[in-house]
Amino acid sequence: MRGPVAPKDPEKKRPGFYIMREKEIFGMPQEDGSGVQFLYESDGRLISSAKIVGNIQDEEILNLLKTTAGFRCLVHSIGVRVETENQEETVEFAFQMYGKHDIYGSGTILKMQLMGNGMEQKLSLDSILWSEDDKEPGQIWFRFLKPGQMAKVSVVLYVKDGFQIPEQEEEEVPKLVGDEANAMIARSLLSKGNPFRLKRVIEKAKRGEAVTLAFIGGSITQGAGAVPIHEACYAWKTYCAFREHFGNEKNVHYLKAGVGGTPSELGMIRFERDILREQEQPDLIVIEFAVNDEGDETKGICYESLVRKALNLPWNPAVVLLFSVFADDWNLQERLSPVGYHYHLPMVSIRDAVSPQFGLTREQGRVISRNQFFYDMFHPSNLGHFIMAKCLEYLFEITEKSMDGEDDSRILQEKREPVIGCDFQEVQLLDKKNLFQDAHICCGSFLETDRDLQCVEMDFNVIPTPQFPYNWQYKGENFHGEITPFTMEITCKSLILVFKDSGEIHAGKAQIYVDDTHVLTVDPLQNGWTHCNTVILFNEEETKEHRIIIQPAKGEEQKNFTILGFGYVK
Fold first, then answer.
1. Cα Rg of the chain (Å, integer)
2. Residue 565 DSSP SS3
3. At residue 483, what are phi and psi to the nearest 5 degrees?
4. Using an 8 Å Cβ cutoff, are 419 and 261 in contact?
5. Residues 6+ apart with CB under 8 A from 392
6. How far is Cα 39 from Cα 21, in angstroms, rounded to an integer?
7. Total-model pTM
8. Please, which residues have CB within 8 angstroms of residue 224's CB and are 6 or more apart in sequence?
9. Is 137:71 a contact under the CB 8 Å cutoff?
10. Cα–Cα distances in Å, from 539 out to 297, 424, 483, 492, 534?
11. What is the pLDDT of residues 329-351, one digit of tens each?
C-alpha cells in the first residue's frame, strides 16, 4: 500500500502588508440573487489603507499603488482570508483594475474562489493576462452565493524582492470602557448650545408621546462602512439608544436620509422630500455634512441655509450639528461650527473625540487605533459608527440633566442675520414630479427617464432607493442628426442644476445657457462614479424671468446626459 505523498517544502514567506484586516463585510442583494460587498480602492483609498492598515510610509511603495503599472511592479501575490458562519461556503474574491477608456469594462479583473474557513489563499500575479487599457487599482468585491451573508476578511499584498516592508504587528483590543474611553466621548461635546429644544424632545419621549428622529448627511449618515449598513450605522444606533433611554418600543420613530458623495448644496434641495416627506414633522434633526461640504460652491452659505430651513420649521424642532472626520483627521469644523455657535446649537465633534488619542500608545491612554475606527479613509467601521452614536448619546445625557436654556423660536422667526449667508433657505426641488407653476418646460430631446441612478439605503431599509427618479434623460442612441434642446422659462432669483455624474463611457458633456449666454459645460465623467451632482446656474438679488437651455456638447451628441432636477428660490 502506498503511503501519503510527502508535502512540498513550504514556500519562503514573502514580506507583505495589509490593506484590509479583519474587516467586516455584508453581501448586499444583487439582481442575480447573489450578495456582494464592494470596496472601492480608487481616489487614494488604496494608498490610505496601506498607510493606516499596513503601516506603509515609504513614498516609493505608496506611489506604486497609484497605477496598475506600479501595482504590477510592486505586488507578487495577493493573500486573502474570509471567515463566514458557514465555513464550507464559497466566496468569490475579485480585484478590478479600472480602465483608461472604459472605467468598468476594459480593465483586468483578478479573481479567486475562497472557502469561508479563515485560511489564507494566495493569488499569484505571475500568470495574469493583463489588459493594455489598465489604468489604476479600482475596486475589490466579495460575492456570496446569496444576499445577507456576513464575513470577516483580510487582504495582504505580498511584494516582490527588493522592497522593505515594516513588521505587521498585532493590534490590541480597543478599550471602550473606563476613564480613557469616557474622556474620549466627553471631548466630542463641542458645544451644548441652547438645550431648550433638545430637552423638550427628550421630555416628550419620556411622557410616551410620539417622537421622530431624523438624520441628513452624506455617505456616513447613509451608513457607509457599517456592516450591515442598515443596523450598524451611527444613525440607527443613536435611534436605538434614544428609544431605550427615553422612549418605549412604539413612540420613537426614525428617518435616515444620507446620500453618499453629496454636500449640503444637495441636502437643502432634497430636505422637504427626504426629511419632511409628505407629512413628517421630525422633532430632532441631526445634520452631518462636515466631510462632504468641500464640494459646496458657496463655502458655507448652503450649509447655513439648510440649518435655517430646519430651525425655522413651524413646530420648532431641535437641530444638532454633527462633525464627522476623515482618516487623516480632516473635516470642515472650523468653517461650519460658527453657524452652530451663532444659533446656539448643540454640536458634536467626532474629530475632537478620537483624533487626539490616535497617536498615543495604550499606556498613554489610546482607546482605539485609527485602523480600528475607520473602515477606509473616508468612512468609520462598525466600531467607528458605535463611537459616533456614543458621542450623540453623551449629548442627550448632558442635555437631560441641564437646567438652563430658553425658548428661542421667536428670535429665529424674527430672521436673525446669518453668519455666513442664507441665500438658499427657501430653496425647493423641481423635477417631473414636483413642478413649479412659474416654470414652463419643453423637454425637447430629453425624452427618456434614466433608471440607472445612485441608490441609497433610506431609513432602516437594506434595499436601496433610487435618487431623483423623476428626471429628464437625453439618450445619444436616439440621435439622428437633429436635436431639440431642453428649455425652461422660470421666474426665480436662484437656480441650481442637479445632474447625474457617471462612470460610464456613454456619458457625455452638456452645454448650459442662461438667457442665451453660455454659462458652463457640465462633464458627468469628472468624478467617475454614478451619483448626484449640483452646480449653481445663477444666484441673484431679485426675482425675474430666465430662460434655461441645456443641450449635448458639440461632438457628444451620441452620448447620454441626465437632468435629475433643479433647486430654485422664488
1. 25
2. strand
3. -125, 135
4. no
5. 234, 238, 241, 286, 320, 322, 348
6. 13
7. 0.89
8. 260, 375, 378, 379
9. yes
10. 12, 9, 29, 9, 14
11. 999 999 999 999 999 999 999 99
